[in-house]
Amino acid sequence: MNAWQGIDLIWLVGVLVLVLSALSVRRLSLGFLLRSLISWAVIALLAFLAVTHRHELSALFTSVTERLGIDDQQVEGRTVRIRMSPDGHFWARVTLNGTERRMLIDSGATITAISGETAAAAGVEPITGLPVMIETANGTVAAQRGRIQHLAVGPLKTEDLGVVISSNFGEMDVLGMNFLSRLHSWRVENNVLVLEPKRGATDDGSDATTTPAGQRKGRARVRDDDA
């Protein structure tokens, strides 16, 4: 145990002594005290499980909303419609190499960006080499390049999509212009984002995108070209 751990232990013991002293003054019964401790322990356990299994819970919530017909992401034919969230953004359910994630659609981001956790879950390996510098809303961060073999937003599917990977993104995953520019079109109508596949896409959504038509500058900008 180092000095800082010793200090933390002293603080913890002190807090426990104060709590027990306050309870003794109020003359609370031992049974009430035990019930309170168990209740707080259950709350802490549920919070821990919710954080640990947040992706599984998100998938379960999505499944329930789909069955109730209140899902924010709807598919009409081969067109995907996404309602604006209360935070003013558009969030899509995206499958990366079979791994589902909730991603922010950002037309101001030149390239798709994923966290280190998402990259590991989807089996996206960073490409060896010097990092690239990404300009984000929170400043410039270093990231590694990578490529997603298969990416899908509902029936809209594409392959070999360039991404940048960084633990500095936290849990935020962003679907950028290098995906949107592969579509036939995208637009916003009455707070609904409409994503349309390229013409000639198959019924199952395969080959729903084209090669990038160009990149726009925006909030997340890579200093080298990527596709």
Question: Secondary-structure map with pairings?
Answer:
Blueprint: H1 3-25, H2 30-52, H3 54-68, E1 73-76, E2 79-83, E3 91-96, E4 99-105, E5 112-114, H4 116-122, E6 132-136, E7 139-153, E8 156-165, E9 174-175, H5 177-180, E10 185-189, E11 192-196, E12 221-222
Parallel strand pairs: 4-9, 5-8
Antiparallel strand pairs: 1-2, 2-11, 3-4, 3-7, 6-7, 6-12, 7-8, 10-11
What does this structure look like?
The chain is α+β, with helices and mostly antiparallel strands. The chain is 32% helix and 30% strand. It has five helices and twelve strands. The chain has helices at 3-25, 30-52, 54-68, 116-122, 177-180, and strands at 73-76, 79-83, 91-96, 99-105, 112-114, 132-136, 139-153, 156-165, 174-175, 185-189, 192-196, 221-222. Strands 3, 4, 5, 6, 7, 8, 9 and 12 form an eight-stranded mixed β-sheet that branches. Strands 1-2-11-10 form a four-stranded antiparallel β-sheet, with no helix packed on it. β3 (91-96) and β4 form a beta hairpin. The protein is elongated.
